[in-house]
Amino acid sequence: MENMSGQTLASPAVLILLGPPGAGKGTQARMLEERFGLVQLSTGDLLRAAVGAGTPAGLAAKAVMEAGGLVSDEIVLAILKDRMAGPDVAKGIILDGFPRTDGQAGALDALLAEAGQRVTAAISLEVDDAAMIARVAGRYTCAGCGEGYHDEFKQPRAEGVCDKCGGTAFKRRSDDNAETARARLEAYHAQTAPLIAHYERAGVLERIDAMGDIDAIAGALGQIVARVSV
Ligand code: AMP
């Protein structure tokens, strides 16, 4: 990915975006990717691709994902390790939706240690639970470029046409409905939110108020990334 703003980081960063479904992790990860030339690694995207391709991992993950639960650490770690072996990750990565459990956080620390690396920063996108259900339930993306939209909060400027690539096909995730969103939020609080303390103890935690405007949040995130990656 080309670095659009010409900003380069002194060393390859390993950034984690923490936050419940709907907090804006995917949107913000894509913006950081463009701005800093980092690579977004979304285990949700990797799992959806595995489901779409009908691989054994995808077949095992499908029902769990549709119910809003967490896929087993074994499957997620296998998929992530495979992706982390790609040559492009040397530019630095933004982990979006991973780690989500204690086991995954420990496995990530061990994997990075093998390569003489560590987590640069874990950034917690702090949001209000009730608002998250509404955000998730109305969202959809451009089928061509992945730009995110929302029925209520962010419609394309021209109806039915993607602002970014001009595409006219859009898609919705099957787990982006109010009922599944509630289950995903519960899984977040039970299994993922405790990781905030893990990264606080490691001295790499950053918190951001992620209830506001997308560009303002991106600005605050960019400042953190620039500060921690020196
Ligand atoms: P996401 O796109 O991050 O919202 O993930 C969509 C779904 O994929 C989640 O609700 C989980 O079922 C599954 N998933 C994604 N990442 C993970 C992970 N790190 N651990 C377990 N399940 C995951």
TrEMBL record:
Q: Give the top-level enzyme category.
A: transferase
Q: Which GO terms describe its molecular function?
A: AMP kinase activity; ATP binding; zinc ion binding
Q: In which pathway does it act?
A: Purine metabolism; AMP biosynthesis via salvage pathway; AMP from ADP: step 1/1
- Binding positions for ATP? 22-27, 139, 212
Reaction catalyzed: AMP + ATP = 2 ADP
Output the Gene3D superfamilies linked to this UniProt entry: P-loop containing nucleotide triphosphate hydrolases
List localization entries: Cytoplasm
User: What are the start and end residues of every segment in region (NMP)?
Assistant: 42-71
| InterPro entries recorded | Adenyl_kin_sub (IPR006259), Adenylat/UMP-CMP_kin (IPR000850), Adenylat_kinase_CS (IPR033690), Adenylate_kinase_lid-dom (IPR007862), ADK_active_lid_dom_sf (IPR036193), P-loop_NTPase (IPR027417)
**One Gene Ontology biological process:** AMP salvage
One GO CC term on file? cytoplasm
Q: Which domain of life is it from?
A: Bacteria
Query: Where does this protein hold Zn(2+)?
Result: 142, 145, 162, 165
For this UniProt record, the keywords arranged alphabetically read as follows: ATP-binding, Cytoplasm, Kinase, Metal-binding, Nucleotide biosynthesis, Nucleotide-binding, Transferase, Zinc
Q: So where does AMP get bound? A: 43, 48, 69-71, 97-100, 104, 173, 184
Adenylate kinase active site lid domain spans which residues?
Answer: 139-175
Q: What Enzyme Commission number does this protein have?
A: 2.7.4.3
- UniProt xrefs under Pfam families: ADK, ADK_lid
The text of the family note is: Belongs to the adenylate kinase family.
User: Its function?
Assistant: Catalyzes the reversible transfer of the terminal phosphate group between ATP and AMP. Plays an important role in cellular energy homeostasis and in adenine nucleotide metabolism.
Q: What is known of its domains?
A: Consists of three domains, a large central CORE domain and two small peripheral domains, NMPbind and LID, which undergo movements during catalysis. The LID domain closes over the site of phosphoryl transfer upon ATP binding. Assembling and dissambling the active center during each catalytic cycle provides an effective means to prevent ATP hydrolysis. Some bacteria have evolved a zinc-coordinating structure that stabilizes the LID domain.
NCBIfam families attached to this UniProt entry = adk (TIGR01351), PRK00279.1-2 (NF001380), PRK00279.1-3 (NF001381), PRK14527.1 (NF011100)
Q: How does it assemble?
A: Monomer.
This chain belongs to which protein, by name? Answer: Adenylate kinase
Gene source species = Frigidibacter mobilis
Q: Species lineage, top-down?
A: Bacteria, Pseudomonadati, Pseudomonadota, Alphaproteobacteria, Rhodobacterales
Q: Gene name, please?
A: adk
